[in-house]
Design brief:
Blueprint lengths: L9 H11 L17 H7 L4 H17 L16 H4 L2 H14 L21 E5 L25 H6 L4 E5 L12 H8 L4 E4 L23 H9 L1
Parallel strand pairs: 1-2, 1-3
């Protein structure tokens, strides 16, 4: 609210927020949090003690329902480890979710789906800054899983038992430095080419917007070279 000129100080912001029903502040990275001014607002009579109790009650009720105040031995999730989290059942469910989340914009001449039984006799090329870089595959507010459990496009295609050639073309999504020779060499003899482009949190994230929807750096050039 301060940034939008609705209030002029953190104290005013705290008073307006609490009076409006807000009971939680997301203030990661701030040295001077807004809700740290609540005691001052209470002393000045801008908010009441009963109002604070009403705001806090649902927070602690939720935390109690989640078991945060229970002994660790009572929490069934405390016993979970990677053998459970990365069990075949969970990994298959993740695969199903990934498959069902794809959006196919155009399928010229029925190119997709690629059939596993035909792939061993074909040569595949996977190119682009997102082809084999686990660090750029996750968006803002995403967890950071163990690297061995991340399947990049290159790693996934190689599990199909086919001949896969690879070239990043550029090492980062900004793609300010681009190796055309590397990409052309990788796609030159391929029957199927998979081009992996995008942005990633290095290019756009919360509070870091882009001015247009163009592919960053030389990514469009990379795509055109692969198609040609």
């Amino acid at each position: 609210m301060l940034g939008h000129r609705y209030t002029h100080t953190f104290l005013e912001t705290a008073v307006a927020s609490v009076n409006a029903g807000c009971n939680l502040e997301l203030s990661y990275g701030m040295r001077n949090n807004v809700f740290m001014h609540i005691p001052q607002a209470l002393a000045m009579g801008n908010i009441t003690l009963q109002m604070l109790r009403d705001r806090v009650r649902p927070l602690f009720y939720t935390r109690m329902r989640l078991g945060e105040f229970d002994p660790p031995a009572m929490n069934p999730y405390s016993a979970l480890d990677l053998s459970v989290v990365q069990s075949p059942e969970h990994r298959n469910l993740s695969l199903e979710a990934a498959v069902k989340s794809f959006v196919l914009l155009k399928n010229i001449r029925g190119t997709l789906p690629l059939r596993a039984r035909d792939l061993p006799s074909q040569r595949l090329a996977v190119v682009g800054p997102f082809a084999d870089n686990p660090k750029v595959l996750f968006g803002d507010y995403a967890p950071v899983p163990e690297p061995q459990y991340i399947y990049t496009p290159r790693r996934g295609l190689e599990t199909l038992g086919t001949n896969v050639s690879f070239a990043a073309g550029c090492s980062k999504p900004q793609c300010q430095w681009y190796s055309r020779v590397e990409v052309v060499r990788a796609v030159g003899m391929a029957d199927v080419v998979v081009v992996c482009l995008g942005t990633g949190v290095d290019v756009e994230t919360e509070s870091k917007d882009r001015r247009d929807l163009s592919l960053p750096g030389h990514q469009l050039e990379l795509l055109q070279d692969a198609v040609q």
